[in-house]
C-alpha cells in the first residue's frame, strides 16, 4: 500500500497534534492524564511524553514524533513548541501553494503528472528551507538578534558564576510549562535551592549539573500520600532500602564497599571442588566461618562502621557484622554504587587472596549514617563527605498520587538537562556573499563590555593585540588561520599610522597598501559602568599576523542595552559576543555563548519574526524571501497561544504592535514577563523543526511494508565478528 | 518466544470532566462513599461473585481496594485517597468525599481552571493556617497527664466504623485495650528521640469481643502436637534464649557457582548433622533454656535439645523476628559455627497460655516495648474490620504523640471552618483580590463552592433523614431527629453538638446547614471550662485530618486542571 506524502496530509496530522499539545503550553497550560495499560495513571504536561503515549499510527505522525524525540534527546525541552511551530509552518506552506499554484514549477516537468509536479515543488521548497537553516538563520541570529541577548551569569566576578535571581527566573519559566500551576513556584524554588545547596564551589556548577543529570534517579525519593508542599531537600544521600543490620555509631564512621560476598564459597564458577571425606567438608566449612569472621574483624579494626554491598551477603556475614558493630546495607544498584564512587572517590575493597594479610586502604569517612523514616518506610541516610564539587543532597518529592510525583521528577530531571544546555556554547557558522569588493571583506566584530577598552598598541609599525582570551577557541581554526597568514607573509610590511581619538568614534588607522584587506573592529562599550561584565578582553588568535596585515580599524561604540525586566528590578548583564574570523574570508564562525537568555513570553519569536521580515524585504532572491516570510509568520504561532487568555493591554495584538514599535525605534525591549528562557534552546528547536519539515517535504511516497527495513550497519558488525 | 505486536493507538479525550458519563460516575462514587461516612454510615458488601471471601465494610481502605474503577479521573481520585490512607490510616472517606464535592461544585461554576485553582489554594492555606494557629477553636491540645482525650479519640474511631459490630460496652473495652497496648509500646526512660515499640495484633476469631486482651511480650502460636513435646517449664528468674535466623535443618547452604564433586560413600547429610549436634552441644554447655528458630529445626536436633531440657520452637517466620530480637535484646544468630556468648538474649518469664481454642507460647520480656493485642470478634468479616480499625486507632495515637493536638469530630470542625472562611472572605477580601488577581464575584463563587463542599461533607454524617443545624455562635454541628412531632418546638431539641463540647443554650441562633445565612464571626479561642468539661467528646486525629484536607484540595485542583485524557488501550 502506498500513500502520497503531501503537505495537506502533514498539515492535517500536525493540526491534530497541535490541538492536544497547545492545551498544555505555557503558564496557562493544563494537565493531561495518561493511563497505562497496567492501570497506572500518569499526569503530564511534557510534550514528548504525550506524543509517545498516543502510540500514533499515521506514518507522517510517526516521522514527526521521531523528530521530536531526537530533538528532546539533544536538548530536553521544547516538544510542544516543536509541534506548534511545525504546524504553523505547514499551514503557511499550504496557503502559499494554494495561492500560487505554479510558482516553482519548471517548464520541462509540466508534462508529468500533477502529483510528481507537486513533489518536485516540495523538493524545491525543502531545499530553500535547508539553505535558510544553514545560512540565513545563523546570520540573523548573529547579526541582529544577538544584541538583545542577556546573560544568566552574575556580572560581579571574573569567573562564570550563577546569579541566583536569574536562575530562579529561568527555572520559574521552565516549570511553568512543565508542572501543574499550583506547584510550579514550589518546585522551581526547590530546584533552585537544590542547585545551590549541591554546589560546593560556585564556579564549578557545571560539574554538579552533570552529576545530578546523570544520577538523578538516585538523588530523589518519592513519597506518596503526602501533600506536595511537604516536598523538601535533605542533606546527604538517601538509599532506597533499609539496613540489613543497623548498629548505631558515633564519632568517626568509615565505610567500605564490597562487590562480592565476603563469605568464601565452596567453589567459584568454572571450578570443581572435590569432597573426599566428611571431615574435609567440615573443615572447609569451619575455614569459611573463620575466614569470614577474620575479614569482618579486620574491617572493624579499620574502624569501618558501615559496609555497602552490591550483592546479598549470607546470614553469617550479617551476623558477624552485627557482632562487630558494623551496619550493613545490601543489594546496592550499580547506579547507586557509581554515584557514591563519584562523590567520595572510593574504590570497592578487594577481598584479599591470602588469609594472613589484609591490606585495606579503601575506606572513606562519612559524617553520619542513620535510618530515615519517610511515611513509615525506612531508608538509609548517609552523610557523604564529598571529594568533588558536588555536595550530595536528596530531593524528597511528595504528592497525593504517584503520577504527580513522576511528573515532578521528570520535570526536575528535564530542568537539569536544560540547564546543562544553557551553559554550553553553541556554534553558528554562515556564509555571506559580499558584493562590494572595496568594502569590508572580513568584518571582525568585537563586542566588549569593558569601557576601558584596551586599544591596540602599535609598536614598530605593527599592530600587536594584547587581548587575553577568555573564550575557548577551536584549535583547528587557529591552525587554519596561521597557515593562511603564512601565505600572506611575503607581503610588504605597511607603515601604519594611528590617530588615536578616544572621545570620537574610535581610533582610525589609515593604511595604504597593495593588499586590500580591511578589517573592521567594532568595540561596543556599555554606557553604564556599574553593570559591566568584567570579562577580560579576548586574545586574537591570529596575533602573529600583525606584521603582514594591513588593517584599517574602526572602533565604534555600540549601544549596549540593558533590558530591565518588569516587576523584578534585576539587571542582567548583557552577554558578550565574540566573533571569530577565519581568513578564508566568506565563512564566519561565531557562537551563541553559554548562558544566553531572553525573557519569556514569545520574545525570541517576535524578535526573530521582525528581523526575518526585515531581511525578506532586503533579499533579492524570491524563494529566500518567501521562505523567510513563512518562517517569520509561523514563529508568531507560539506567542499567539501564550497570550490567548490575556485581555486588554496584554492581548497578543497589543503586545506585538508594542514590540514592533520599540524595535523600529531602536529602543530596548521591555518585557512584562519575569521568566527567562535559553536562546540556544530556541535556536536548536528552530533548526530541528526546519530539518523535520525538510524531511516531511522530501518524501513523495509512503510505502507500507511487512518487514522492517533491513539495517545496513548489521552487515558490518557481522563481518567484525 | 516473545510475540511482538504493534501497539494500538491510544484514545484521546478532551475535557474529561464535562461529559455526561464522567459526571454520573463521579456522582455515583460520591454517593457510595457518602453513604459509608460516619457512625451511622451504611455498610458495603464486597464479593466477587465466584466464591471467595465476602467483606462487609465501611472502611475506605478496604472499600477502595476492592472497588474496580475504570474512569481515569476516578482512578486519580481513588489513588490519592488510598495513598493518604496508607500514610495516615484515618480520614480516607473524609478526603474522598471532600474531593468529590469540590470537583462537582466547582465544575458547576464554569470558571477558568486557573482562577479556581489559585483561589482553592488560597482557601486551603486559610484553613491550614487557622487550624495550626493558637486561636483555633476546633483544636484541643492533648494533655498526656490524663487518658481522657486519648480515650475519646480511640472511642470516636471505633464508633465511626459500624462494621466492627460492637456494642457500647465492647467499644469501651476495646478502646481501653488499644490505649493500653499503645502505652505499653512507649519506652520507660524516654530520651531525646522516642522510638516507639510495636503492638502485634494476634487474631482470635469466633470468640466474644470481651475476651480480647493485651499482654506484654510476644505470643507465638503453637499447635497442640508441638505443645505435647514442650516440656514443663521450670521456674526461674530469667531464661536464656538463642534466636536463630538460619535454618537448622541441616541443608547445605550456598555452595557457589562451581560444581561440587562428592566421592562415593561420603554423606554430606551426616556431616551437616554432626555440625548441628556440635551446635547443640555448645547450646547445652552455654546453659541456654530456649531455642527459637525462624526456619526449620532438624528433628534430631530437636530431640537432642529436649533430652537436655532445652525448649525448641521453630518456624517462627520472618515477621516476628524483629519484635523477637527486641524482646530478647539481641540480634538473631546467623551462624552454625561457634556462637559468641554475647548473642544470647534473655526473657523474664515463659509460659504456655490458652486463649479460646488456641495455644500460645508466651514470652514475657524484662522491659521491652513490645506487646500483643489479642483481638477477638465473632466472625471473620467483623474481625477484619476490627483489626483495620485497631490499626487505625493505634496509628492515630502515634500521630497524636508527634503533634499533640486533636480536632473536634462529629462534623463540628467542618461547620466551624465554614463559618470562619465565610467570615474571613466576606470581611477581608482585599488582600486576596490583590494577591490572586481575581474579581470579587469570582472569590465569592469559589468560596461558596468550597464552603458548601465542606458543609455537605458534614451533612453526610446524617443518614437517617434528620435535619442538620448550625448555631450562630460557635458554628458547630447539631443534628435533629427526623419526623419530629409538629407540636414540639424543634429548635429546643438538640441537646449536644456533634462533637459533644457544647450543650444546647438559650442564646444560640439556629439555622439549617446549607441554607443562605448571614456570615458571622465564630467564637475563636476555646474556653478552658470547655476543655475541662470534655468527658465524652467525639475527636479526630489532627495530623490525619489536616493532611486529608490538603490532599483533597490538591487532588481536586489536579482533576480540574485536566485538559485531556490519553488512554492507552494496549
Automatic annotation (TrEMBL), chain A:
Cross-referenced InterPro entries: BBS10, Cpn60/GroEL/TCP-1, GroEL-like_apical_dom_sf, GROEL-like_equatorial_sf
Signal sequence segment: none
Region span, Disordered: 532-551
Pfam families: Cpn60_TCP1
GO CC entries: chaperonin-containing T-complex
An MF annotation (GO) of this entry: ATP binding
Residue ranges, compositional bias (Polar residues): 540-549
GO biological process, one term: chaperone-mediated protein complex assembly
Name of the molecule in the record: Bardet-Biedl syndrome 10 protein
Lineage: Eukaryota, Metazoa, Chordata, Craniata, Vertebrata
From TrEMBL, chain B:
Signal peptide extent: none
One Pfam family from the record: Cpn60_TCP1
Primary localisation category: cytoplasm
GO cellular component: centrosome; chaperonin-containing T-complex; kinociliary basal body; nucleus
UniProt-recorded Gene Ontology molecular function terms: ATP binding; unfolded protein binding
Protein name per its UniProtKB record: Molecular chaperone MKKS
Keyword match Nuclease: no
